[in-house]
Structures are given as structure tokens and as C-alpha cells.
Amino acid sequence: MNTKIINIIGWILFLISSIGFIMSSIGNFWAMFGSVFFLVGCLAFLIPFLRKED
After folding, report:
1. Sign (positive/negative) of CA torsion 34, 37, 43, 46?
2. Could you count the other beta carbons within 10 Å of the beta carbon of residue 16?
3. Average of pLDDT values for 4-30?
4. Measured between alpha carbons, how far is 48 from 54 in angstroms, rounded to an integer?
5. What is the DSSP track for 1-52?
6. Contact call for residues 25 and 32 (beta carbons, < 8 A)
7. Per-residue pLDDT at 45 exceeds 70
8. What percent of the chain has pLDDT over 70?
9. What residues contact residue 19 under an 8 Å CB cut-off, 6+ apart?
């Protein structure tokens, strides 16, 4: 496996983790607030992997 695939797998695991945090924080505003920002941060770091290289 090359480094890029390992990085993508790691970020997918972070996404799954953030979805779990969101589900567990239903009913608690501040926990949900933090969980959603964690999800957005994970998605932001995935953008370079999803863009096509020139």
C-alpha cells in the first residue's frame, strides 16, 4: 500500500468516528456543536485527496 491509500483509509476512519460522535451527542447542544465541527474538519482535510491531479 502506498502512503496516499493509507492516508485516505485513516481519514475515512475519522469520518466514521465523527458520525458516531454526532449520533451519541443527540440532545446535547455543545457536544453536537463540537461533533459537527469535527466532521467538517475531516471533510476539509479530505478535499486534497478527492481533487484530480493535473
Report:
1. negative
2. 11
3. 92
4. 12
5. --HHHHHHHHHHHHHHHHHHHHHHTTT-HHHHHHHHHHHHHHHHHHHHHHSP
6. yes
7. yes
8. 98
9. 39
Distance of CA 46 to the CA centre of its chain: 8
Sign of CA dihedral 26, 28, 29, 35: negative
Residue found by looking up cell 451527542 in the block: 25
* 26 CB-near residues (< 8 Å, 6+ apart): 32
| Residue whose grid cell is 465541527 | 37
Residue owning grid cell 486534497: 48
For 32, the grid coordinates are 453536537
